[in-house]
Design a protein that fits this description.
Oligomer: single chain
Shape: globular
Number of helices: 2
Radius of gyration: 26 Å
Largest sheet: 10 strands, antiparallel
Strand content: over 45%
Number of domains: 1
Number of strands: 10
Distance between the termini: 8 Å
């Protein structure tokens, strides 16, 4: 897939989500909960007069890279023996993963919902009940989302490599201001790092929703509906 194309699709949080679980027109509270729609009985866009576009790709390949880092520090100091300075521990860690997908058949279906379709979706009994029980979602800072595109993978294979890094450093720091034992602060101590690589490969024999597209929807207390494409955090 072309890397210069604007990214607008999110990967499903759980690989293997069925097309029945993630449907066009689903109303959700967060991208991570795409398989938990508020409207249990989704009105099909096509049956509501919406134009749905479908595109088939053969022998697609997708590569997804993720990384994260973090650290934690602990510092101890004795008031009874200030000349000993500070003794501390710092732990650093991070992880990286790379997924390489080979998809023999990738079908993409999407639509641009009309204002009438969005309003009708919010009149769904389950959605209306949620808004009634959670009035905070009518505030400007709150949003609901509609699924407006799905990529369904057929016969996909995934090779995943994970790399974890763990570092530990014990250090002793002397502050010269309260102590005559040192002319300048210093830090010393051993460090230790661990790198762990894990490789996994899996094949999905049944069709599943590989990625999805969203529109963010806001509804005022008076019932006015606004919606636009939501792409923050999209990877495809």
């Amino acid at each position: 897939m072309c890397s210069l194309r604007k990214k607008s699709y999110f990967l499903c949080p759980t690989p293997g989500s069925t097309p029945e679980a993630v449907q066009l027109g689903s109303i959700i509270v967060h991208p991570r909960r795409v398989a938990e729609p508020l409207n249990r009985y989704v009105a099909s866009p096509e049956s509501s007069g919406e134009k749905v576009f479908v595109h088939d790709e053969r022998d697609s390949s997708v590569k997804v890279h993720r990384s994260s880092t973090g650290s934690l520090s602990f510092l101890a100091h004795s008031s009874d023996a200030p000349e000993l300075g500070h003794i501390g521990t710092r732990a650093d860690g991070g992880s990286e993963s790379c997924e390489r997908w080979a998809i023999p058949h990738l079908q993409t279906a999407w639509f641009s919902p009309s204002a009438e379709y969005v309003r009708a979706s919010f009149q769904d009994p389950d959605v209306a009940s949620f808004l009634s029980e959670n009035p905070a979602w009518l505030r400007p800072a709150r949003r609901l989302y509609m699924v407006t595109g799905v990529k369904i993978a057929h016969g996909a294979t995934c090779a995943r490599d994970s790399l974890s890094r763990r570092g530990l450093r014990l250090h002793h720091t002397v502050d010269p201001s309260p102590s005559p034992l040192a002319d300048a602060p210093f830090s010393s101590g051993p460090s230790h790092a661990v790198r762990l690589r894990v490789g996994q490969t899996g094949t999905f024999h049944e069709p599943f929703v590989f990625a999805f597209r969203l529109r963010r929807i806001s509804v005022s207390a008076s019932g006015k509906v606004k919606h636009r494409d939501y792409t923050r955090g999209a990877v495809l």
